[in-house]
Specification:
Largest sheet of chain B: 7 strands, mixed
Order of helices and strands of chain A: EEEEEEEEEE
Strand content of chain B: over 45%
Number of helices of chain B: 0
Number of helices of chain A: 0
Distance between the termini of chain A: 35 Å
Oligomer: heterodimer
Order of helices and strands of chain B: EEEEEEEEEEE
Helix content of chain A: under 10%
Strand content of chain A: over 45%
Helix content of chain B: under 10%
Number of strands of chain B: 11
Radius of gyration of chain B: 13 Å
Structural class of chain A: mainly beta
Chain lengths: 108, 118
Amino acid sequence: DIVLTQSPGTLSLSPGERATLSCRASQSVLSIYLAWYQQRPGQAPRLLIYGASSRATGIPDRFSGSGFGTDFTLTISRLEPEDFAVYYCQQYGNSPSTFGQGTKLEIK
Amino acid sequence: EVQLVESGGDLVQPGGSLRLSCEVSGFTFSSYWMHWVRQAPGKGLVWVSRIGRDGSSTSYADSVRGRFTVSRDNAKNTLYLQMNSLRAEDTAVYYCVRDSGGRGFDPWGQGTLVTVSS
């Protein structure tokens, strides 16, 4: 199975700041099968990014994804209060699909 | 509007069984692969199972293979997860999710809580 390791585990920032979240895979992942999700407390996950860099429908352009191979990044350019949540990366090109352990983005 | 609504979660004793359902609307159910993903309390997301468009292709996580069975009724727009020989470590919120054909898992249902405890 492909192991995805997210860093940092927790990121403490203030609204308006830039957030950079990392996802590293144990083996190469096809970029077209790398996704990012946001999960707010008590809610289901929501797709943000698919194909490593394509924003899902309705996702603000302050969210962007990049990377290839084994290293992927989710960037939030200017944090809004509603962005403080847990973020997961996922690879869905190899079976079984696997998720990273998550990065908690908290208000500083 | 695309909607996925899970039901069937409950408190069950170890060794017991439960069947989860996921009723979908707003899209052509038979055109999509579907998945179950679970999340133990305070933990991350774990893929559980998937099923092909006509139900003939299925796969499972090692942790549930032989105990869980995924199925679907395309006429009823409903996905199922039959869970047998339940263990404490199966305690989780179970989400049904549409496989958007290369565009990630989207959308997700609201989840249904399964608690395995004596």
